[in-house]
């Protein structure tokens, strides 16, 4: 596993854990605005990493991304 792939895997797991936490706490009103902002920032970082990975994967497979 490359270091970029390992970083992506960590970001995916972190997002999964944070989403699980928020999903359980939200209906009980235990999620602050700061927690929502932090989660949104993490998801934006994850989205960028996924886009980069997709571009790298497409390039190595000889496929152009849009």
Written description of the protein model:
With 66 residues, the chain is mainly alpha-helical. The chain has one domain. Helices cover 77% and strands 0% of the residues. It is built from 2 helices and no strands. Helix 1 (3-25) runs antiparallel to helix 2. The model has no long low-confidence stretch (mean pLDDT 90).
Overall, the morphology is elongated
Q: Radius of gyration, rounded?
A: 15 Å
| Unreliable residue runs | none
Separation of termini?
26 Å
Q: How does the helix and strand content classify structurally?
A: mainly alpha
Give the H and E element order.
HH
What percent of the residues sit in helical stretches (DSSP H or I)? over 70%
The chain-level mean pLDDT equals: 90
Keywords:
mainly alpha
Tell me the layout of helices and strands.
Layout lengths: L2 H23 L7 H28 L6
Helix pairs in contact: 1-2
Give a nutshell description of this structure:
With 66 residues, the chain is mostly helical. The protein has helices at 3-25, 33-60.
